[in-house]
Sequence to fold (249 residues):
Amino acid sequence: MTDYQTIAQWLAESTTAVAFTGAGISTESGVPDFRSPGGVWSKSQPVYYDEFLRSPEARQEYWRQKAIAHHEFVAAQPNVAHQTLARWETRGLLRGVITQNIDGLHQLAGSRSILELHGTARQIACLDCGARQPADPMVAQYEETGQVPTCPECGSGLMKHATISFGQQLSEAVLQESTEWAQQCPLMFALGSSLVVHPAAGLPQLAKHAGARLVIINRDPTPLDDLADVVINAPLGETLTRIDELTEY
Ligand code: ZN
Fold:
């Protein structure tokens, strides 16, 4: 059997496989990897969370950068890799997606069971009362006025994208649920992630140590390749399509 056939068979036998996704799944939708050359943070210093809290100038700089980043992903559409994962969930093969991405493309593709480790850039949240707003109109308002917005609900809270900033802790609840998924799944796909950012990259390790099969599909080699049952270095869209075609439903 080829690797593709093997993976397809493992997938068909599973009902609670988990996909862990990183920036590589969205670069095929034209969303730049923010760490890569040309991404917003190759040109600007990121604003750390404590600076955001403490300094109006830092908040101004944060909003300037996030408005640029917003336009980099807001027009992007899910690609065939996102769509394939959504279909596997619908067909009862996949428990869900754990993603490092903040672009919301899994939701747009139709996935429902999604754990967003780094939050979502599609929403803005109040740091005081927790009220959430869609990002689009609030970014537009910022661009028109140049003013960092305050919370329309409580009237005074600082508004920040509902993403995990540099220097900010991941959500304990999301991390806990991700850990459970990793420990319980029979099969984990690590897709389009360089698997170097911790603690997120620890999830495939956790799955493997708990007895799961680990399939890594990424453009480049990763530090966890030796741990994996199968490694494929190829574009995600075409690879998942091939696996899907070989899967018996
Ligand atoms: Zn508020």
